[in-house]
Design brief:
mainly alpha, 10 helices, 57% helix
Length: 150
């Protein structure tokens, strides 16, 4: 899963991949694979990247041209994330099995996401947010703006 704005943001600051890798305490190879899309960046690492550049996750994944939300929080809130995932599912009138099937995961995995036992994977979150037009930052409890999507 490639997010072209990762490279744009890095180049905008005149940084090399090794510079960002150092800031994130990962190998240059890991960072390079995330930036080119040959490996999907873990959600906590994506959040860390966004915090380094002071931008929203929605901006980096291309869901918004707004770089930062006014009331943005730096951390992912696991409990809020689980509650929001359940709200989205209920709002769409879906069972856990139905939503899990739509996202090509199994129901016990979805249940762990909703129960805040496991942080949702980046690829699953991006697919969910894209399919149902939700803000990733809002789902994760990072965005408290009044003008963002419910």
């Amino acid at each position: 899963m490639q997010f072209p704005r990762m490279k744009e943001l890095r180049e905008e600051k005149g940084l090399k991949q090794k510079d960002i890798a150092q800031k994130m305490n990962v190998t240059k190879g890991s960072y390079s694979m995330w930036e080119c899309g040959s490996d999907t960046i873990p959600l906590r690492r994506l959040n860390e990247f966004c915090n380094i550049f002071n931008v929203s996750i929605d901006y980096v994944v291309g869901f918004s041209d707004k770089r930062k939300y006014a009331n943005a929080k730096p951390d992912i809130k696991l409990k809020i994330t689980g509650e929001n995932l359940k709200k989205i599912r209920n709002k769409k009138g879906l069972t856990q099995v139905q939503l899990a099937n739509e996202l090509n995961i199994n129901q016990p995995t979805w249940n762990r996401y909703e129960k805040s036992r496991t942080l949702i994977l980046t690829v699953v979150l991006v697919e969910l947010a894209s399919k149902y037009h939700y803000s990733i930052d809002k789902i994760l409890g990072k965005d408290k703006d009044k003008d963002s999507e419910d």
